[in-house]
Write a structure and sequence with these properties.
123 residues, mainly alpha, 8 helices, 2 strands
Length: 123
């Protein structure tokens, strides 16, 4: 005879949920920051994002991992360039348009690092 245990609900801190959603925690609404987020709630947010989440994903401010990905550089590259604060989509687009020397250099470094990682993975 097998006894079935009641399924426990997996929860996470709102900081973790924000990271999984790709948004800056401090920019989320107070009610999101106030409690815990269940796995089902996270899945629902991903499947059918509310207006605040859609707006944050579209306009920012974005966390450093999203900024780095949008610029095509590493998080370390952002730090070397002195970018430590979250950026909005408009600020990211402005940087892309200006294409400063540091951005070109960091993109090259990042591309080389990806090539090397792919080469090592094939071994």
């Amino acid at each position: 005879m097998t006894s079935s245990k009641p399924k426990s609900i997996q929860t996470m801190k709102p900081e973790t949920a924000a990271k999984k959603l790709g948004v800056l925690f401090s920019a989320t609404p107070a009610e999101f920051r106030a409690g815990v987020v269940s796995r089902d709630e996270l899945n629902a947010l991903q499947a059918n994002p509310p207006a605040w989440l859609t707006d944050l994903r579209r306009n920012g401010p974005h966390p450093k991992q999203v900024v780095a990905a949008k610029l095509g550089v590493s998080i370390s590259g952002l730090a070397r360039a002195g970018i430590t604060e979250p950026l909005t989509t408009a600020e990211i687009e402005q940087l892309k348009a200006e294409n400063p020397e540091w951005l070109e250099r960091e993109r090259e470094i990042h591309a080389e690092a990806r090539k090397e990682a792919a080469r090592l993975k094939q071994r």
